[in-house]
Amino acid sequence: MIGNAADAQDLTQEAFLKALARRDQLKDERKAAQWLGRIAHNTAIDFLRQRKKMTYCDLEAAPEPRHLESPERLVLRAEKQAYLADGLRLLSERERAALLLRDVEGLPAADVARQIGCSTATVRSHIANARVKFRKYMKGRKP
After folding, report:
1. pTM listed for this prediction
2. Which of 21, 24, 42, 54 is the most exposed place for a label (fewest CB within 10 A)?
């Protein structure tokens, strides 16, 4: 959702601190995962609203790869990541969240609905719209 690993790590820590400070609000411990997921989702949305843009680190500041790859593979991987990031930027915040939680994280639509605070039907609509936009983007990028 955030597009930057360092920011995502900071937001994860922030979400846990918020949950710890509000632990008395958790009424049913069986729903702790959804409750924490909702806090994390809202923290990410608040961050995106404040920033309104993605930031990237300089190449020199990027971490060193753990295993050696050829320069060609590194370039191809970077191009693929940039391509996917560009496509995800076309989606609304809710479409992006629904698509990533459903297709990348593998959560059922009902869990996604609880996490982003809408109905299952709305989640399915967000996912369908996101997939249409992403397919259209992919067709437009092919030579």
Report:
1. 0.51
2. 24
More confident residue, 26 or 142: 26
Domain endpoint, select from 13, 44, 63: 63
Assess whether 37 and 84 both reside in one domain: no
Q: What is the 3-state secondary structure (H, E, C) of the chain?
A: CCCCHHHHHHHHHHHHHHHHHCHHHCCCHHHHHHHHHHHHHHHHHHHHHHHCCCCCCCHHHCCCCCCCCCHHHHHHHHHHHHHHHHHHHCCCHHHHHHHHHHHHCCCCHHHHHHHHCCCHHHHHHHHHHHHHHHHHHHHHHCC
Residue numbers of the domain that contains 56: 1-63
Q: What is the pLDDT of residues 91-128, one digit of tens each?
A: 998 999 999 889 888 889 999 999 889 999 999 999 99
Instruction: Return the CATH number at 113.
Output: 1.10.10.10
